[in-house]
Specification:
The complex is a heterodimer. Chain A has 18 helices and 17 strands. In chain A, the strands form five sheets. Chain A has a four-stranded mixed β-sheet, covered by helices on one side. Chain A has a four-stranded mixed β-sheet with strand order 16-9-14-17. Chain A has a four-stranded mixed β-sheet with strand order 11-12-10-13. Chain A has helices at 2-34, 46-50, 69-81, 97-101, 117-123, 130-137, 168-173, 183-195, 212-222, 243-256, 268-276, 289-296, 337-348, 351-356, 375-383, 396-407, 415-423, 433-453, and strands at 38-43, 52-55, 61-64, 84-89, 109-110, 128-129, 146-147, 150-151, 157-161, 163-167, 199-201, 280-285, 306-309, 319-325, 329-330, 360-361, 387-390. Classes of the chains: A alpha/beta, B mainly alpha.
């Protein structure tokens, strides 16, 4: 009997060892098969491939090769797996489109932040199901581009977005140690900064995309993450009684008070420089901008004077928006899908790369590293002074609201914000008649197209 | 000589000086920017001259990082080949359309004319697919092929010039036993020099400055000057002081061509107008 037991144990041991060995052998076999494969990675992350643009002691622009973190990651990946990576920087998604339209197989991995769901489905390989995504990335998976229960791109980090990026030296000069908690106090601080001859807020209105912050600030104003979709519940979303109307009015009041830059910045780089050099006190953006401004702080000054803190309480408490960050997809036409997937997984498992990119690793089983730039927000979230709100997924209500705005000609380029903001003539800051007229026009357009499309809020 | 009143003279100078300012003012900030440091560019107005006119850092950076030298050579090769082929085809097509009567001549001419009404961008999805199927994407030949085509503007210029060349010259040569190709090569082509120079100037400058086609077809492997320039543009921020230096470097070849060929250029444009 004893011998039989011993034999059974021995047999089981042999089986376990052989199975484990089989797994390793399989994995080694796959790596061996992929060795020598070259994948082409098309990315808009120029800074992370070429290095951040910084200024030397003479003030000349140069690229800091040490900050080419994606290039360094690709080199490590090649060393470990034998899969070669060719990084190709694109300025925008439009450069990729012609290649996908001819089903070109030269794209293996790509990043593409601004595509519609239809485009994701047409050009990207399904990465995993929503359930698999949630198992790996928690609730953040729900905000990844999804069509028919398939996630098309993996967003391995999370970011705290839409907060105040500020130059600490400037606000200290105005007598403040931190971003005030209330809107009244925030406005007082801006007045003091303005009195110092410094621009309180750098907006860069010459482009439309900076207005995205206004859309997200409506969440803070209402304390409701679904505020965009819930426009459908009202006939007059642009009146100040509605969260959107109130948020846009706050921005326009800041404009009337002269809180934004009087000059036109020729480029967003100049806008970032204004904060880095202390010509402006702050910007209201996502965390992605912080490392870039820190990199522009002139030589001899500590880049950590650029800080990131929650926006003041606009009436419903202090919030910070959390959203999945970065996006990595496999091309539907790639002939190296397995190698491409390995590369994306390698990124998702590299907490340091994600932290250096300004985000927090989100994948389960990966020990996250919190970048220094989140120090203030983290502390306030831990103490309960600031609440984290998760960016909502695009549900049916949100898409219907978007359709109404599109039909009304107000959606593209954040026109529903821009047209109102621009309606106030800065040379006549007390005359709000044009602004109020624009509110009426936009409300009428919204009601008209909502009725024409026959859409309404669905519980 | 017409007597001019003093006020008329003053007015004329005011107008001319105004016109010069109108042309120069947009270029001045570009020159200023090219000599400024990054910090200086961010902290001063674009109309303020640089502190140091001998700061060539941006030029060196643009050449080194942007690989502008190679890009200019690529542009030169593309221009030389495509303009030569285009000139040859345009003069030949014009010669045939002007001097010969044949069935379908009107149809051919109308088809050339029709292309004028179709914006280039609208056909690019299909054209890109054709070039892709030919395996020419990322090869210089793709752009050469697209630039070498005969366009209606060129035909109009050539037809105007052909009107000024007497048909009797062709007929005499024909009686003397010259072939049609000989007539084209020895009589027509030399007499069409002003029109050829006009076409070279119009299309040469157009192709030199074109960004759309090289960016679409050449991408990374072979860059022309405009594509290389575009690589300095970032997703959100752009070092404009370096872009300005690169643009000035790009103006240099055109300036050299202009200095050496100005007599021909003026003669070419004036000749085309006269004819």
């Amino acid at each position: 009997m004893k011998i039989k037991r011993l034999l059974a144990l021995l047999l089981a041991l042999i089986m376990v060892v052989s199975m484990a060995g089989c797994g390793d052998a399989q994995s080694n076999q796959t790596n061996k098969d992929l060795k020598g494969t070259t994948i082409k990675v098309y990315t808009h992350m120029g800074q992370r491939v070429l290095g951040e643009e910084k200024k030397d002691e003479q003030g000349n622009t140069y690229r800091d090769a040490n900050t080419a973190i994606l290039k360094h990651l690709a080199e490590r990946f090649t060393k470990e797996t034998g899969i070669n990576v060719e990084l190709i920087v694109v300025t925008n998604e439009e450069e990729l489109r012609p290649l996908f339209q001819v089903k070109d197989d030269s794209v293996d991995v790509f990043t593409c932040p601004n595509w519609s769901l239809e485009e994701w489905k047409a050009y990207a390989e399904p990465y995993c199901t929503v359930e698999e995504g949630i198992a790996q990335y928690g609730e953040y998976a729900k905000a990844m581009p999804t069509v028919d229960n398939q996630i098309y791109c993996i967003m391995p980090g999370r970011a705290y977005n839409q907060a105040v990026v500020y130059n600490e030296e400037v606000i200290k000069a105005a007598g403040y140690d931190e971003i005030p908690a209330t809107l009244d106090e925030f406005n007082k601080m801006c007045e003091k900064i303005k009195a110092l001859g410094i621009t309180p807020i750098s907006l860069h209105r010459v482009e439309n995309w900076p207005l995205a912050t206004v859309q997200d600030f409506a969440i803070y104003v209402s304390g409701n993450p679904n505020v965009f979709a819930e426009c459908l519940k009202t006939e007059n979303p642009f009146s100040e009684t509605s969260p959107f109307g109130k948020t846009i009015k706050i921005y326009t009041e800041w404009k009337a008070k002269g809180f934004f830059e009087p000059e036109v910045y020729t480029d967003f780089g100049v806008a970032m420089d204004s904060v880095a050099y202390g010509k402006a006190a702050m910007m209201l953006f996502g965390s992605w901008v912080v490392p870039q401004i820190q990199g522009r702080v002139p030589q001899g000054k500590d880049p950590s004077i650029i800080k990131f803190a929650p926006a003041p309480d606009f009436g419903a408490g202090r919030y910070v928006l959390a959203a999945p960050a970065d996006n990595w997809a496999i091309s539907k036409f790639s002939k190296n899908k397995e190698a491409a997937r390995k590369f994306i997984e390698y990124i998702a498992n590299d907490a340091q790369f994600i932290a250096d990119s300004g985000f927090i690793a989100n994948k389960k089983g990966v020990e996250p590293k919190v970048p220094e730039l989140y120090a203030i927000i983290d502390k306030m979230v831990a103490s309960g002074d600031c609440k984290v709100v998760l960016q909502p997924a695009n549900d049916e209500n949100a898409l219907n609201n978007q359709k109404v705005l599109e039909e009304a000609g107000l959606y593209a380029d954040y026109k529903y914000v821009g047209l109102l903001f621009d309606a106030l003539d800065i040379t006549r800051p007390d005359d709000w008649s044009a602004y109020n007229k624009q509110v009426e026009t936009q409300n009428q357009l919204y009601a008209k197209y909502k009725q024409e499309l026959g859409v309404s809020w669905k519980d | 000589m017409v007597n001019e009143s003093r006020s008329y003279k003053v007015l004329r100078y005011v107008f001319l000086i105004g016109a010069v300012i109108f042309v120069i003012v947009p270029i001045l900030p570009l020159i200023f920017m090219a000599f400024k440091t990054g910090s200086e560019y961010s902290s001063t107005s674009v109309l303020v001259p640089p502190q140091n006119w001998f700061n060539f850092y941006n030029f060196k950076y643009a050449i080194r990082v942007g690989n502008l030298g190679k890009a200019l050579i690529n542009t030169g090769i593309i221009l030389a080949v495509s303009l030569s082929v285009q000139l040859l085809f345009t003069t030949m097509v014009s010669y045939v359309l002007h001097r010969f009567e044949f069935t379908g001549k009107r149809v051919v001419f109308t088809l050339f004319l029709l292309t004028m009404f179709i914006p280039v961008v609208t056909t690019q999805t299909i054209v890109f697919q054709i070039i892709y199927k030919l395996g020419l994407v990322n090869k210089m030949l793709s752009v050469i092929l697209l630039y070498s085509g005969v366009n209606i503007v060129g035909i109009f210029i050539m037809l105007n010039q052909l009107n000024a060349i007497p048909k009797e010259l062709d007929e005499s040569a024909l009686i003397d036993g010259a072939s049609y190709f000989r007539i084209y090569a020895s009589i027509i082509l030399p007499n069409m020099k002003p029109a050829c120079i006009t076409l070279l100037i119009i299309n040469g400058i157009g192709y030199y400055n074109d960004f759309y086609i090289p960016n679409l077809y050449l991408r990374k492997e072979v860059q022309t000057f405009t594509v290389a320039l575009h690589k300095f543009f970032g997703n959100t921020a752009t070092p404009f002081e370096i872009v300005a230096a690169a643009i000035l470097l790009g103006i240099v070849p055109i300036m050299i061509v202009f200095i050496f060929l100005q007599k021909h250029i003026f003669y070419g444009l004036a000749g085309a107008v006269k004819s």
